[in-house]
Design brief:
- The protein is α/β, with parallel strands linked by helices.
- The protein has a single domain, classed as Rossmann fold (3-Layer(aba) Sandwich).
- The chain is 29% helix and 24% strand.
- It is built from 11 helices and 12 strands.
- The strands form 3 sheets. The chain has a 6-stranded mixed sheet, with helices on both faces. The protein has a 4-stranded antiparallel sheet with strand order 4-3-6-7, covered by helices on one side.
- It is globular.
- Bound molecules: adenosine-5'-diphosphate and magnesium ion (MG).
- The site of adenosine-5'-diphosphate has 14 residues, from strand 4 and helix 2.
Length: 316
Amino acid sequence: MARNFFTLMRSSAPSASAHGAATAERPAPPAPPNNMTDGADAGGGVHFDLTLEAVRHEINEEVDIALQLRDVSAFYGSFQAIDRMTMPIPQNRVTALIGPSGCGKSTLLRCFNRMNDLIPGARMEGEITFEGRNLLDPNIDAVEVRRRIGMVFQKPNPFPKSIYENVAFGARINGYSGDMDRLVEDALRRAALWDEVKDELDKSGLALSGGQQQRLCIARAIAVQPEIILMDEPASALDPVATLKIEDLMRELAEEYTIVVVTHNMQQAGRVSDYTAFLLAGEERVGRLVEFGPTQDIFTNPLDQRTEDYITGRYG
Ligand SMILES: Nc1ncnc2c1ncn2[C@@H]1O[C@H](COP(=O)(O)OP(=O)(O)O)[C@@H](O)[C@H]1O
Ligand SMILES: [Mg+2]
């Protein structure tokens, strides 16, 4: 089998970005002497030897890995929804999961924080390494995983509580004993909602607009100090203006968090993400990873014909 060195230390001059200034502004890393250096070299980067055909693109920046998937499969009873997906999720970057409806995007996202555990009959195989441990190991505390890897859903789902309590709730449950007012303000600021709600923190979260509710849910996720934020089509229920706000916010959040976003909107994936994974299910409905790489490469130079067909709109 061909060995693919997916080298996250490689450097060359970045070419025009598919998604504008956000990535272009990142300082270019110094060029390493070659791209096959050991993972433990001075740059602090990591590289992975992946034997999966799907990861064939070169990475032109130095980046660490937040999650490393190896042969991740998921089942609902006897039905296999996703089959042996292997890829990295780069740290402090936005990774988009794209593909037609039913290809397993939500299922994969739910593997990342053990949300599938909550679905009766759901089962996962393989490895997702997070800080040296396999998240899928049954001995790992799924509640702790969900604190560190938060989730935002398609439909904004604030609690029927005040704006303040929506944000404070999770932190309180986790035993947060610091200055709650500061924590709430900080989370609302990071979610780009503070200026709109600072004078009405006692108002019900349900009284906000859809876009504000979604930012409130993002603030709620941030308040428990996660490292990774998963978003499942977070803007698909929102109007275009609210959608752009969420997209801007995703770019900002990537400075501090690792973001994984499911979207069926190609333009959105192009605008917000640094990396893209294209998933596809065949006749038998089993989702597989077709291609993973820098978003710009996936969109302008896909290596698989099926990726090209999808991004040019040839699938439904
Ligand atoms: N709770 C569930 N029980 C059984 N099958 C499910 C469940 N959730 C999703 N599936 C099936 O798994 C496959 C992948 O679904 P999903 O991850 O929701 O895809 P996507 O998010 O890409 O639309 C589909 O065939 C879907 O019908
Ligand atoms: Mg879905």
